[in-house]
Amino acid sequence: MSPFLSPRPRGVLPTIVFAQFACTSLWFAGNAVLPDLLRDARLSGLTLGAAVSAVQLGFIVGTLVFGLLRLADRLAPARLFLLCAVAGSFTNAALLLPGATPALVLGLRFGTGLCLAGIYPVGMKIAADYYENGLGRALGYLVGALVLGTALPHLLRLLAAGFAWQAVVLATSGLALAGGLLLWARVPNGPFRRPAARLDASAVWTVFGNRPFRQAALGYFGHMWELYTFWAFVPLLLATHAQLHPAAGAYGPGWAFGLIAAGAPACVAGGYLARRVGSLRTARVALAISGACCLLSPLLLLLPRPAFVGAVLVWGMAVVADSPQFSALVAQRAPAGTTGTALTLVTCLGFALTIVSLQSFAALQGHLAAHYLFLLLVPGPLLGLLATRRLPTDEAAS
User: Fold this and answer.
1) pTM
2) What count of Cα atoms within 13 Å lies in the side-chain half-sphere of residue 137?
3) pLDDT reported for residue 237
């Protein structure tokens, strides 16, 4: 029977998508208010970069621990999602405690990152439990929600003049709590869930010992090398173009929001395309387009504003459109009973790779002209395409 005809609660996908967006607001909106927190609390010994990195580190450590313990496969995933949403909402709200110190802020942001490890990959695991063959489409919506969350700080900077940062903290904590409760109440275990009965220390080797899975994971890693560094340095890309074309004027934060947020509908459209041509072809086309944009980036910066904006808009769409499809390929090729472990571990390693990419990019800023910096991203798409060139296309429509 088709997975779209299998029994499941009505509106399960919109519920998962909303819960995912609501809970990841702890990550992105939380980062957006950190400059105000550091200023008001006079935490001169703490940099914004360190506070943001604490979330990333917490997420990486959390996904590693969750993956090794196989929590997403051994526990009811909706319950795990709820527990992490509740804990994350409290670690986020605790930023409002009086007498904040650098150590406390770093510890709270690290704790929020740990909680997010039970939200983002577990949300994908829940989707995989409901959409075995339609996973590419389902994950298109989920990653689209994540893209909107990523763009959210740029939008908040436009709206922040009318709101106190404390209200944003309380709102994101409440939103995360509501998202966790809604998913727990409305989304029971999916019809394709295959729980792991016991802790198996060899699960990691079982997962990565599977060649098709390993190829899909390498494609995902190549995509991740490019994605977060591109997102992080979109303002630099826009500022560089403005410097080369001073008559056109500067770009405000709304431009960065639009270029990143454009990836959300691209993820959804990619999900529907994958239903027709498969996740592998969809992912490889998007990766090739974004890789070409990386390679041509010095030339793109020479274009007049309308052409440049159009080209970067295509880049912003392609750079993330492959993400849900690579996640679908990883889930589909994971050995039975290890889907949650596979998604969690691959997410962990992918985010760890983003730190290497981001730090490499930042280190080269003082040594390389800005219009050549984005060439550093080329190896990611190139290696991703090479790794997946012989990946079997035996999947059903995704």
Assistant:
1) 0.79
2) 17
3) 93
